[in-house]
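Good morning,

Attaching, inline, the backbone tokens for the sequence recovery test we're adding to the shared suite. The designed sequence is right after.
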């Protein structure tokens, strides 16, 4: 169990601290349109961090944070499609799953 958390943590850490582990945004094409863009790693990393932060039975509060962020995010950065918002929640949920299982 600990080894899985270590692997997930190492994979998510670069996205959390902003290290360039993916190609530059200019090489991804349009952002906030499809299901995966250069922000997908940040959403995955947030899910990884939320699981241990809330502890046991952390699914509901973690999902509330992920959904809440996607509700307020367009007011700060407009132009995100509904598909991208749903996928961002999915990336965060996948990160949560990897950190809690």
């Amino acid at each position: 169990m600990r080894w899985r958390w270590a692997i997930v943590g190492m994979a998510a850490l670069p996205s959390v601290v902003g290290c360039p582990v993916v190609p530059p945004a200019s090489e991804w094409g349009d952002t906030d349109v499809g299901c995966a863009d250069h922000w997908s790693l940040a959403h995955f990393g947030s899910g990884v961090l939320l699981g241990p932060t809330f502890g046991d039975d952390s699914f509901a509060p973690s999902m509330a944070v992920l959904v809440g962020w996607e509700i307020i995010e367009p007011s700060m950065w407009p132009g995100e499609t509904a598909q991208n918002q749903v996928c961002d929640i999915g990336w965060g949920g996948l990160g949560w799953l990897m950190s809690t299982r």
